[in-house]
Amino acid sequence: MLPLLGACHARDQANRSPADLDAPREVIKEKPLPAARAMQADTSVTGAFLRWADAVRRADTAAVNGFISPAHGLWVLEQPGALPLLTRVSDVRRLRRSQPQPSFFTLAAELMPCLRPTAVDALPTATCDGPPGNEAGFARTGCLLGPARAAALSSIWDHATLRGGTAAQGRAAVAASRYAVLQTDTGYRFYWARLAGRWRLVLLDLRVPCSA
């Protein structure tokens, strides 16, 4: 039976014209798997931060909200006056930043260009006696990635104005964070937690050092 099938196949090929043999055949391509790509990128906190920052610049609400933990939400820390303000949201469209920048997506203009955050053992703190261009006095400048040091925020819940959540919820969210990204141009810090296999942004510290 096999020789007969081979002979039939050869006869069919011989009966086809050269144009038929050279004609491109239909190629069936597998569709990409967006979920698999997203999970692969999520294995790196650096990749998660860069994807989040790109979504902010594109004002992609769905993508930005995708980095918010359903359990912890996103806490946004600001200093509009004498007391810090902490606001918990699950949808960034509902966040109104303190004046003069009410919309969340005005943050896009404040993000530093950052191809890849530089990993450091510890994020520098502001000394407020730096030279021009680094008035905050950071010992190292740029877009930096280091341990979250959540303990540095442990006392802020006692005297801050809270919106959308409780101090206990806020402490739990920050306690879950493992890394933070510091952008020294503004002093903003982005706290990231690994939750259920994904990196989530749990706290966004928008206080400007040495501005009081």
Describe this structure in words.
By secondary structure, the protein is α/β, with parallel strands linked by helices. The protein contains 6 helices and 8 strands; from the N terminus they run αααααβββββαβββ. It has helices spanning 2-15, 18-22, 34-42, 45-57, 61-65, 167-175, and strands spanning 74-78, 85-89, 118-119, 143-147, 161-163, 177-183, 188-195, 198-205. The chain is globular, with a radius of gyration of 26 Å. It starts with a helix and ends in a 7-residue tail after the last strand.
The helix fraction, in percent, is 25-40%
Q: What series of H and E elements makes up the topology?
A: HHHHHEEEEEHEEE
Main beta-sheet strand count, sense and barrel state:
8 strands, mixed
Describe the global form.
globular
> Can you count the beta strands?
8
The low-pLDDT segments are: 1-41
The whole-number mean of residue pLDDT values reads 81
Radius of gyration: 26 Å
Number of helices: 6
Task: Report strand order across the widest sheet.
Answer: 3-4-6-7-8-1-2-5
Instruction: Tell me the distance between the termini.
Output: 90 Å
Which band does the percent of strand residues land in? 15-25%
- Helix-and-strand structural type: alpha/beta
